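Long-time lurker, first post. I've been practising inverse folding by hand and with some scripts of my own, and I keep getting stuck on stretches where the C-alpha coordinates seem ambiguous. Below is the full C-alpha coordinate string for one chain I'm working on. Before anyone asks, I'm not after the true native sequence, just a reasonable design that respects the backbone. If someone could post their per-position residues I'd love to compare against what I wrote down in my notebook.
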Protein backbone atom coordinates (compact mmCIF):
# COMPACT_ATOMS: atom_id res chain seq x y z
CA UNK A 1 0.00 0.00 0.00
CA UNK A 2 1.35 3.42 -0.95
CA UNK A 3 1.38 6.12 1.71
CA UNK A 4 0.01 8.82 -0.58
CA UNK A 5 0.00 11.60 2.00
CA UNK A 6 3.80 11.53 2.27
CA UNK A 7 4.41 11.88 -1.47
CA UNK A 8 5.74 15.20 -2.77
CA UNK A 9 3.20 17.34 -4.62
CA UNK A 10 3.15 16.99 -8.40
CA UNK A 11 4.10 20.00 -10.53
CA UNK A 12 0.99 22.13 -11.00
CA UNK A 13 -0.91 20.48 -8.12
CA UNK A 14 -2.71 23.04 -5.97
CA UNK A 15 -1.07 23.31 -2.55
CA UNK A 16 -1.94 25.26 0.58
CA UNK A 17 0.45 27.89 1.98
CA UNK A 18 -0.21 29.01 5.57
CA UNK A 19 1.78 32.12 6.48
CA UNK A 20 2.15 32.49 10.27
CA UNK A 21 4.05 34.84 12.58
CA UNK A 22 6.58 32.02 12.98
CA UNK A 23 7.08 31.27 9.27
CA UNK A 24 5.44 29.43 6.38
CA UNK A 25 3.82 25.97 6.42
CA UNK A 26 3.12 24.29 3.06
CA UNK A 27 0.60 21.47 2.77
CA UNK A 28 -0.93 19.11 0.26
CA UNK A 29 -4.72 18.71 0.46
CA UNK A 30 -6.67 15.55 -0.42
CA UNK A 31 -10.00 16.61 -1.95
CA UNK A 32 -10.55 13.18 -3.49
CA UNK A 33 -10.34 11.54 -0.03
CA UNK A 34 -12.06 14.19 2.15
CA UNK A 35 -14.01 16.46 -0.24
CA UNK A 36 -16.25 18.13 2.33
CA UNK A 37 -13.44 18.89 4.77
CA UNK A 38 -11.21 20.32 2.01
CA UNK A 39 -14.03 22.44 0.54
CA UNK A 40 -14.95 23.77 3.99
CA UNK A 41 -11.35 24.67 4.83
CA UNK A 42 -10.65 26.27 1.43
CA UNK A 43 -13.86 28.30 1.35
CA UNK A 44 -13.33 29.68 4.88
CA UNK A 45 -9.66 30.43 4.10
CA UNK A 46 -10.45 32.18 0.80
CA UNK A 47 -13.00 34.38 2.60
CA UNK A 48 -10.20 35.42 4.97
CA UNK A 49 -11.95 33.89 7.98
CA UNK A 50 -8.73 32.38 9.29
CA UNK A 51 -6.62 35.55 8.83
CA UNK A 52 -5.16 36.97 12.08
CA UNK A 53 -6.47 34.00 14.04
CA UNK A 54 -4.31 32.53 16.80
CA UNK A 55 -3.37 28.90 17.30
CA UNK A 56 -5.58 28.71 20.39
CA UNK A 57 -4.72 25.17 21.52
CA UNK A 58 -1.08 24.21 21.53
CA UNK A 59 0.31 21.04 23.09
CA UNK A 60 4.02 20.39 22.54
CA UNK A 61 4.75 16.83 21.34
CA UNK A 62 1.10 16.51 20.29
CA UNK A 63 -0.47 19.13 17.99
CA UNK A 64 -1.29 22.77 17.20
CA UNK A 65 -4.95 23.75 16.69
CA UNK A 66 -6.63 26.78 15.12
CA UNK A 67 -9.98 27.65 13.55
CA UNK A 68 -11.93 28.85 16.59
CA UNK A 69 -14.12 31.22 14.57
CA UNK A 70 -16.66 33.43 16.34
CA UNK A 71 -19.33 35.68 14.87
CA UNK A 72 -20.02 39.29 15.99
CA UNK A 73 -22.34 37.86 18.66
CA UNK A 74 -19.49 35.82 20.14
CA UNK A 75 -21.07 32.52 19.08
CA UNK A 76 -19.00 29.91 17.30
CA UNK A 77 -19.44 30.03 13.54
CA UNK A 78 -20.67 26.88 11.78
CA UNK A 79 -19.03 25.18 8.82
CA UNK A 80 -19.83 26.43 5.29
CA UNK A 81 -22.64 23.87 5.27
CA UNK A 82 -24.47 25.76 8.04
CA UNK A 83 -24.04 22.96 10.56
CA UNK A 84 -21.57 20.29 11.62
CA UNK A 85 -20.67 17.84 8.89
CA UNK A 86 -19.81 14.16 8.83
CA UNK A 87 -16.42 12.53 9.21
CA UNK A 88 -14.59 11.39 6.07
CA UNK A 89 -12.25 8.59 7.03
CA UNK A 90 -9.89 7.05 4.50
CA UNK A 91 -7.80 3.92 4.73
CA UNK A 92 -5.10 5.88 2.86
CA UNK A 93 -4.65 8.76 5.33
CA UNK A 94 -3.21 8.67 8.85
CA UNK A 95 -2.52 11.03 11.76
CA UNK A 96 1.21 10.92 11.12
CA UNK A 97 3.39 13.83 12.26
CA UNK A 98 2.48 16.60 9.80
CA UNK A 99 -1.13 15.50 9.19
CA UNK A 100 -3.76 18.24 8.80
CA UNK A 101 -6.98 17.04 10.43
CA UNK A 102 -10.38 18.31 11.52
CA UNK A 103 -10.85 19.15 15.17
CA UNK A 104 -14.18 17.89 16.49
CA UNK A 105 -16.28 17.28 19.60
CA UNK A 106 -17.08 13.66 18.79
CA UNK A 107 -18.32 11.72 15.74
CA UNK A 108 -19.62 13.84 12.83
CA UNK A 109 -19.17 17.22 14.54
CA UNK A 110 -16.74 18.88 12.10
CA UNK A 111 -17.04 22.67 11.82
CA UNK A 112 -14.18 25.19 11.49
CA UNK A 113 -11.43 23.82 13.77
CA UNK A 114 -8.34 22.15 12.33
CA UNK A 115 -5.08 20.88 13.77
CA UNK A 116 -1.65 19.78 12.59
CA UNK A 117 -0.13 16.74 14.31
CA UNK A 118 3.27 17.70 15.74
CA UNK A 119 4.04 14.60 17.83
CA UNK A 120 7.56 13.38 16.94
CA UNK A 121 6.98 9.96 18.52
CA UNK A 122 4.21 7.37 18.48
CA UNK A 123 2.89 5.52 21.51
CA UNK A 124 3.44 1.78 21.02
CA UNK A 125 0.32 0.85 23.00
CA UNK A 126 -1.86 2.63 20.43
CA UNK A 127 -0.07 0.90 17.59
CA UNK A 128 -0.80 -2.43 19.30
CA UNK A 129 -4.50 -1.54 19.41
CA UNK A 130 -4.68 -0.32 15.81
CA UNK A 131 -5.28 -2.59 12.84
CA UNK A 132 -2.80 -0.67 10.68
CA UNK A 133 -1.24 -1.75 7.41
CA UNK A 134 2.35 -2.77 8.20
CA UNK A 135 3.95 0.06 6.24
CA UNK A 136 1.74 2.62 8.06
CA UNK A 137 2.80 1.17 11.41
CA UNK A 138 6.45 1.34 10.35
CA UNK A 139 6.01 4.95 9.19
CA UNK A 140 4.40 5.94 12.52
CA UNK A 141 7.47 4.52 14.28
CA UNK A 142 9.78 6.36 11.89
CA UNK A 143 8.25 9.86 11.83
CA UNK A 144 5.82 9.97 14.78
CA UNK A 145 2.16 10.84 15.07
CA UNK A 146 -0.96 9.84 16.99
CA UNK A 147 -2.38 6.56 15.72
CA UNK A 148 -5.37 6.61 18.11
CA UNK A 149 -6.76 9.66 16.25
CA UNK A 150 -7.25 7.58 13.09
CA UNK A 151 -10.94 6.97 12.40
CA UNK A 152 -11.77 9.63 14.99
CA UNK A 153 -10.57 12.74 13.17
CA UNK A 154 -10.73 13.39 9.42
CA UNK A 155 -7.28 13.77 7.85
CA UNK A 156 -7.54 16.09 4.85
CA UNK A 157 -4.01 17.34 4.25
CA UNK A 158 -0.33 16.95 5.11
CA UNK A 159 2.64 19.27 5.64
CA UNK A 160 5.38 18.83 3.02
CA UNK A 161 7.48 21.87 4.04
CA UNK A 162 7.68 23.93 7.23
CA UNK A 163 7.47 21.35 10.03
CA UNK A 164 10.11 23.43 11.86
CA UNK A 165 7.46 26.19 11.97
CA UNK A 166 4.91 23.76 13.41
CA UNK A 167 7.48 22.81 16.07
CA UNK A 168 8.09 26.49 16.86
CA UNK A 169 4.34 27.10 17.32
CA UNK A 170 4.06 23.98 19.50
CA UNK A 171 6.90 25.19 21.76
CA UNK A 172 4.98 28.24 23.04
CA UNK A 173 4.38 28.49 26.80
CA UNK A 174 0.72 27.78 27.57
CA UNK A 175 -1.78 27.90 30.42
CA UNK A 176 -3.66 24.90 31.86
CA UNK A 177 -6.09 25.05 28.91
CA UNK A 178 -3.18 24.73 26.41
CA UNK A 179 -3.70 28.35 25.29
CA UNK A 180 -0.50 30.33 24.63
CA UNK A 181 0.15 32.77 27.48
CA UNK A 182 1.69 35.73 25.67
CA UNK A 183 1.94 36.90 22.07
CA UNK A 184 0.27 33.77 20.67
CA UNK A 185 1.39 32.97 17.14
CA UNK A 186 -1.21 33.87 14.51
CA UNK A 187 -2.16 32.73 11.05
CA UNK A 188 -1.54 35.79 8.86
CA UNK A 189 -3.07 34.36 5.68
CA UNK A 190 -3.81 31.11 3.87
CA UNK A 191 -3.30 30.86 0.12
CA UNK A 192 -3.75 28.16 -2.52
CA UNK A 193 -1.17 28.09 -5.29
CA UNK A 194 0.08 25.68 -7.98
CA UNK A 195 3.12 23.72 -6.87
CA UNK A 196 6.12 24.69 -8.95
CA UNK A 197 9.32 23.58 -7.19
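-- Answer (accepted) --
I ran through it position by position. Result:
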Amino acid sequence: MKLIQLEKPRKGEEVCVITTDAGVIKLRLFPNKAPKAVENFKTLAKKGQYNNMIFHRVINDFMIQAGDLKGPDGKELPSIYGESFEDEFSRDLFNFRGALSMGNAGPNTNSTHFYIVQSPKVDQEYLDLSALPLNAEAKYKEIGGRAYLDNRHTVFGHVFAGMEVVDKIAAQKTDENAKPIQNPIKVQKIEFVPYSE
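A couple of notes from the structure itself: The mean pLDDT is 95. Helices lie at 35-46, 124-129, 134-143, 163-170. Happy to go over any region you disagree with.
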